[in-house]
Design a protein that fits this description.
Layout (H helix, E strand, L loop, with lengths): L5 E12 L2 E3 L12 E13 L2 E3 L11 H5 L6 E4 L2 E7 L2 E7 L2 E2 L10 E5 L2 E7 L3 E2 L3 E5 L2 E3 L3
Parallel strand pairs: 1-3, 2-4, 3-5, 3-6, 4-7, 6-9, 7-10, 8-11, 9-12, 10-13
Length: 145
Amino acid sequence: MAGIGFNIVRAENIIIRNLRIHHVRANMNAPGDGISIEGPARNIWIDHNEIYNSLTVDDSSLTLDQVKDYYDGLVDAKGDARYITISFNKFHNSWKTSLVGSSDSDNYERSLTYHHNHWYNVNSRLPLFRFGKGHIYNNFYDGAV
């Protein structure tokens, strides 16, 4: 899925599996994430996907900050999103990888599990949590800058 992401809102019992999602642009009147989960959402399983963007953009007029914001997150969870498992995925070539909670006022008691994911050539949010509980184990980080 080139340039197309998923926006899961007010949903439950969702499985996203065995897909390649890449180069989803930010600021295009959509969340701009490879997969965006906005609660209330429950029982979401993201498994065996490859999700990536690019650390560079073919536009020499952009500053480094503009390049960093050209794409957004690969998998983000906001609002009242609970019981989410993110497993056996490949996350790569991204400035912003996985954000949990969009701001300091987004203080829901989320619960997410990240296991057996491969994170490589990524810069930040590996994942970044704002409130909630994270169970993170057996992930492989390679080339995180």
